[in-house]
Amino acid sequence: MSGGFEGTSARGAARSHRPAGQERVPQHQTRIAAIIKYLFLRLFLTTSALLPLPLLHGLARPLGSLLLRLPNRAARTTLRNLKACFPQLDEPSVRDLARRSLRHSLCALFEMGRAWIWPMPRMAKLIREAEGVNEFRDAVAAGNGVILLAPHLGNWEIFGISMCHGSPAHFLYMPPDNPALDRLLVRSRARGGLRMAAGGQAGVNKLLRALRAGELVGILPDQVPADGSGVFAPFFAQPAYTMTLACKLAQRNGVRVFCGYAARLPKSAGFRAVVRELDLRYENLDDSVTAMNQAIEEMVQECPDQYQWEYKRFRRQPDNTGFY
């Protein structure tokens, strides 16, 4: 699921404070730009939903190689993250992994049409192989409350929507600024019975009520949270400012925690869904967060080229130094 709960206040502050001398953009121009972006997205989603998956993945291969050659933020951040997290790799190996990672990121982009538009039964058939899914569904059916952690690995959209299908579920997310886009996002995910909980305290309260009702809640655990909503914990031996919400919710009696992803299979054959149960019940919150990051790291190690390395996961540092 795109987005998380952090950053609401920061975005509001950014909108209310602009550099001296910067003119306000007229509202009608802002609305026109939002409409154009929305129409472009709808066209992109419809087109990508119609095109064959092998063709879309085939397009991602040369584009990913091109991204690595051209100056751009995604390539720079990917290389910086990989060099820090895999110090044992030499330069050619890092660049090869970066190339494959950028290709998979483009694959995730091109798969949005299937995740957002395809009917649920059809989209669910993209999951060709599964590990631990039956145990996860049994836990959800028990009605004691389940937390599903979906890190940015493989296609987290298809994974999250598929795993929540058929069960009352809430997923925490950060609404986009464009109201039309937000309605599209919420509507597309709701077709699988998934209800979105917008970020902030109101969203957290929705998750709490869902857990009390014995329902399923979903969280993206590897996003940088807002100030005061996280602690530093190691991730690939790097200090990563990590949300504490999932670990706090996991302390509730009877609640079980699972973590998983949907990895792309070779030759565009679909996805392999992997779901594993985690024990995050530690007396010390730092230990719980460390265990969560360790579980995510172990999953990333299984298919490191399918992780979203272009995300600035380490932009917050304990000493406030710049990582990127």
Write up this protein:
There is one protein chain. The protein has helices spanning 8-16, 27-50, 53-69, 73-85, 91-110, 112-116, 120-124, 133-141, 156-164, 179-190, 201-212, 245-249, 285-302, and strands at residues 127-131, 146-149, 169-173, 194-198, 216-219, 230-235, 238-243, 256-264, 271-278. It has 13 helices and nine strands. It is globular, with a radius of gyration of 20 Å. Helix 10 (179-190) links the parallel strand 3 and strand 4 (194-198). Helices cover 49% and strands 16% of the residues. The longest helix has 24 residues, at 27-50. The protein has one domain (29-306). Mean pLDDT is 90; it is low at 1-21.
Summarize the structure.
This protein has 324 residues and is an alpha/beta fold. 49% of the residues lie in helices and 16% in strands.
Tag the structure with descriptive keywords.
single chain; two-stranded antiparallel sheet; 324 residues
Give the SSE layout:
Elements: H1 8-16, H2 27-50, H3 53-69, H4 73-85, H5 91-110, H6 112-116, H7 120-124, E1 127-131, H8 133-141, E2 146-149, H9 156-164, E3 169-173, H10 179-190, E4 194-198, H11 201-212, E5 216-219, E6 230-235, E7 238-243, H12 245-249, E8 256-264, E9 271-278, H13 285-302
Parallel strand pairs: 1-9, 2-5, 2-8, 3-4, 3-5
Antiparallel strand pairs: 6-7, 8-9
Helix pairs in contact: 3-5, 4-5
